[in-house]
Design a protein that fits this description.
Layout lengths: L1 E2 L5 E2 L1 H8 L3 H13 L3 E6 L13 E4 L2 H7 L5 H5 L4 H20 L4 E6 L5 E7 L4 E6 L11 H10 L4 E5 L5 E4 L2 E5 L4
Parallel strand pairs: 3-5, 7-8, 8-10
Antiparallel strand pairs: 1-2, 3-4, 5-6, 6-7, 9-10
Helix pairs in contact: 1-2
C-alpha cells in the first residue's frame, strides 16, 4: 500500500489491476515520478522498537499547487472545506521542513512512523545524535491529549523533545518535552 496526499491509501496491486499494468510497473512509475521531484516517499522509522510497525512507505505529491489543481480546489475556503485539507496541510509542512533542514544539514534522514494499532507520527527527523519527532496539525490549538503518539514516541525512543507544528501564534512548551511551533515560523 501507498499513502498519498489526499490521505487515502493506495493498494499497489489494486492500482496496478485498475490500470491494467503489473505491480512492479506501478512501483517503477512511482520511482520515475519521485525522480522528477514531484513525489516524495518517506520510509517508516523502524529502528530499536518492539512494536509491530506498518513498514509500507508513505508518499505525497510535493507540489501543493499541483494537488489543488488535480482536486479542482480554487480558493482557500474551498480547500478548508475538503476532507483532504489536513493531509494537504501536512504534506506542505513536511516539504517545508525537509527543504529547510536539508539546506543546512546534509546527513539528516526523514521518516514517518506508524504502528499496527495506528499510532502515528507525521515526520521523524534523524540526526547524527538524536531523533526529533514532529506532529503536524491544521488547527490553531491542539489539546495535549491528542498528542499521545508523540508523547509515547518521545518516551520510548528517549528523544530530547518533540515538536508540534500548527497554526498557533506563538512558540511555547505544551508539556515538559513538547514544544509548539507555529507554521509561520518555519
Amino acid at each position: 500500500m501507498l499513502a498519498y496526499s489526499s490521505g487515502e491509501l493506495i493498494n499497489a496491486s489494486n492500482f496496478a489491476r485498475s490500470l491494467d499494468v503489473s505491480q512492479p510497473t506501478i512501483k517503477k512509475y512511482l520511482e520515475i515520478v519521485e525522480g522528477t521531484f514531484s513525489w516524495r516517499s518517506l520510509s517508516c522509522y523502524n529502528k530499536n522498537t518492539k512494536k509491530r510497525l506498518v513498514k509500507t512507505p508513505r508518499g505525497h505529491l510535493r507540489d501543493i499547487g499541483l494537488i489543488n489543481y488535480f482536486l479542482n480546489i480554487g480558493s482557500i475556503d474551498n480547500l478548508k472545506s475538503r476532507p483532504q485539507y489536513g493531509r494537504i496541510w501536512e504534506s506542505f509542512i513536511i516539504e517545508e521542513i525537509i527543504k529547510s533542514v536539508s539546506l543546512k544539514h546534509s546527513r539528516v534522514k526523514f521518516y514517518f512512523y506508524r504502528t499496527s494499532n495506528q499510532s502515528e507520527i507525521d515526520l521523524i527527523i534523524e540526526t547524527k545524535n538524536s531523533l526529533i519527532p514532529v506532529e503536524i496539525k491544521s488547527g490553531s490549538n491542539t489539546d495535549i491529549r491528542k498528542l499521545q503518539s508523540l508523547t509515547n514516541f518521545i518516551s520510548e525512543h528517549k528523544c530530547p523533545f518533540g515538536i508540534l507544528i500548527n497554526k498557533g501564534e506563538e512558540i511555547f512548551m505544551l508539556s515538559e518535552n513538547i514544544i509548539q511551533i507555529p507554521a509561520s515560523f518555519i
